[in-house]
# Entry
Amino acid sequence: MEICLSAVLGELTTRSINFVLRKLSKPPALKVEDRLDKVLLRVKVIVDEAMGRRITNQAMLQQLDMLRDAMHRGYYMIEAYRCQSHNKEKDKDHIVSHSSQSSKAISAQNFCFSSSGTSTQILEEMNGVLDSLSSMVLDASELILFLESYPRMYREPYSMHILLRNCMFGRQMETELIINFLLHSESGSTEELEVLPIVGPGRVGKSTLVAHVCKDERIRNHFSEIFFLHKHDFIDGEHPFSNERCGMKHQSSLSNSNSERRLLVVELIGDLDEDTWGRLYSAFKWSVQSSSKIIVTSRSDKIIKFGTTQALTLKYLSQEAYWYFFKTLTFGSLDPKTHPRLTGIAMEISRTLNGSLIAANVTSLVLRGNFDIHFWCKVLAFLRGSYQKHVSRFGDHPIDLMNQNRPARFERIAARSEDFIVHCEHQRSSQEDVPEIKLHDLVYGSIKPQGKFEVLAWKSEIPPYYSYVYASEIPELKTKAAKRKRCMKNEVVPC
# Structure
């Protein structure tokens, strides 16, 4: 018995000593936050500098991609920790939400990180991110030296929030992979044309990425003509490739060896049968020289079989990268560190948007126009209630339904009883007319359309400069009108 008791006491003593040593060895929270903040600043300088340069080395791009992902996670964790710490100090501070759904007082703490874990957990993750970033910065010393050898893409200095509005966010490595495919030929290649498949879910940025690449002067100087072809542009039984059916986006004025070198971009939504692909490929091959190229984009990974090289797969932004994008657009040149309460609310808002780039641009525009904490709380409460109600009624997030080309129902902040349904989305070129009704005015303003109408969701400022138009309807108004009409006919209907 004494031997057992001695062993138990010895084990407890050892564990207690180890616990105390671990506590003493851990740096205090403020020190971790300060060190991480300084390391993130160094990483941001490297990443921002790299974004403004035309880097062609694939290994460097991969290293920068890893560094950028770690930076996004670092900013996410440090801002999450600051929000939690600020809420503990302001635990008794309440903000009155003016939402039409509820008039009770809502604590700002309820808006911040309801599912992100405790401050202790966040602090532990901050330590991990700090160690990882510190190691990556040390390994990036040679990368920093090599950056100077690459030319700049922007001759004038850009602030980051302006830069993100005028370039494609987070796709630098993918861009250079496509450019490398287009500019270089496979050694010992045959007469067959090279084909690059690009696959990914809806609204992940496939068309934007390809248009961004085709705007590059290296590509425009390499190909005499660049054509874009959609599935509805070729029909069974008709010639699948011709200048009349293809949309020519570029024609070079240079008369040199690239006079017959062409690029064809085929944009699909789903799959394409092999017979149609065979006719399209043969017709294009017959009209061009062997150094011409083809890019095929689709949501379906079945098109990978048409490729002659490894397919490029695009995925949605990670939660940390999406937050960095949304934060930069929302706060602009302001430092989120000086607005901890607004930062916490913005982080919760970014979660409700479900990774949608269109929703990020629309919502950041609304928030940036009114830097008032009461208004931001009202927007968060509205988005949470609207999306939760949609999920409970229809079983899915409205943005997910739209990505599947299914109708989705949205609420209006001014009158929630008058929901509107988005039936489908249309992409219109910069030359086409767009509706005067804007989505942010419809959802957050007092504008009140009737019946069926079109609404401009967002107008992109980067290639291909699409305007995203929603075909919408307010069915409640049509129902009321029908009831009034039936009442006038003396039918027994409660009006």
